[in-house]
Design brief:
By secondary structure, the chain is of the alpha/beta class. It contains nine helices and 15 strands. α4 crosses α5.
């Protein structure tokens, strides 16, 4: 399910049932000096050994699953100094029984989708999200406090969600500070692999038309991202969820019924582009690299008009 569809559902259901909510309870603060990884470096950051330290580390529950979850900056192998403390805080809950699964996130525009998906599907004991930098960290964690699909508790007290107006105000201030940085988000095409019923693997990608399909593109070069002998380049005119539209369903139709082995979803605008990628992430599709193609590769490319 893409972000657009989630927002529509949230709007229709301002109070979700308990079964639909992810509940996060802050792990209680502990003194800095009690962390095994506390070091001179942390002291240089202004932490005293007797200072109570609260971190983005939680007890999580969703339906029948209960686990620990933490958020930090890192590359999946190494984490920041604060990240080491987050890891320690998770282990303090039950160090002999916890196995921590680390999820690396480096894509700004799908960070929250991945976090939301994994919070709803994880069935282990502890989960650590490691974000590539502070920007990706913000994209993947800020919505915890705003999303209608999440409740955050401090002890037994449920924290109020800030208003949409407050969230929009923060985002506007952030845009002023960052200037044009956000303009480049989404430029890097993402390639997914899709398995159809026959077992055949099909590569798919999404192209951002920015506004009314205005984004310079070379059909052959874009098709190289997916490969294959028959490429469908299909224009998509509205976000996922509008009138029940699904890009996963469209992919299956093009690959299974029409025999295409490479598919490019050419989104009308950035909103549509992001919703398609969000749906692919939510569906659990794996991201892959472009295929190796010969220099004389000459596929059949079929460009299809707007599909809503």
């Amino acid at each position: 399910m893409g972000e657009a569809k989630r927002r529509k559902m949230a709007g229709n259901c301002p109070v979700c049932s308990d079964d639909d909510l992810i509940k996060l309870t802050f792990l209680s603060p502990v003194t800095s000096g009690s962390f095994p990884s506390y070091s001179k470096a942390h002291a240089d950051m202004g932490m005293r050994e007797d200072q109570l330290l609260a971190l983005n580390a939680f007890k999580a529950s969703f339906r029948d699953s209960e686990f620990l979850v933490g958020f930090c900056v890192g590359d999946g192998q190494m984490v920041s100094q604060i990240g080491m403390l987050v890891m320690d805080r998770l282990l303090m809950e039950s160090p002999k029984e916890i196995s921590v699964r680390v999820i690396k996130l480096d894509e700004y525009d799908i960070a929250w989708d991945i976090v939301l998906r994994d919070l709803k599907s994880f069935n282990g004991s502890a989960l650590l999200f490691a974000f590539a930098d502070s920007e990706v960290y913000d994209a993947g964690t800020a919505e915890i406090f705003y999303s209608k699909m999440v409740e955050v508790y401090d002890g037994k007290k449920r924290l109020d969600r800030p208003t949409k107006e407050r969230r929009d105000g923060i985002l506007k201030e952030k845009e002023k500070i960052l200037g044009s940085l956000r303009q480049k988000v989404g430029d890097e095409p993402k390639i997914f692999t899709f398995s159809i019923k026959s077992g055949r693997q099909v590569r798919i990608t999404v192209w951002n038309g920015r506004k009314d399909f205005i984004h310079e593109m070379d059909p052959l070069e874009v098709s190289r991202l997916v490969g294959g002998e028959r490429i469908a380049m299909v224009q998509v005119g509205s976000p996922v969820g509008i009138n029940g539209r699904s890009s996963v369903g469209l992919t299956e139709q093009l690959a299974e019924s029409l025999g295409f082995d490479g598919i490019v979803h050419w989104a009308r605008d950035t909103e549509t582009y992001k919703s398609i990628i969000s749906e692919f992430v939510e569906a659990g599709l794996s991201m892959v690299e472009p295929p190796q193609l010969s220099l004389d590769w000459k596929p059949e490319i079929v460009v299809m008009p707007v599909r809503d």
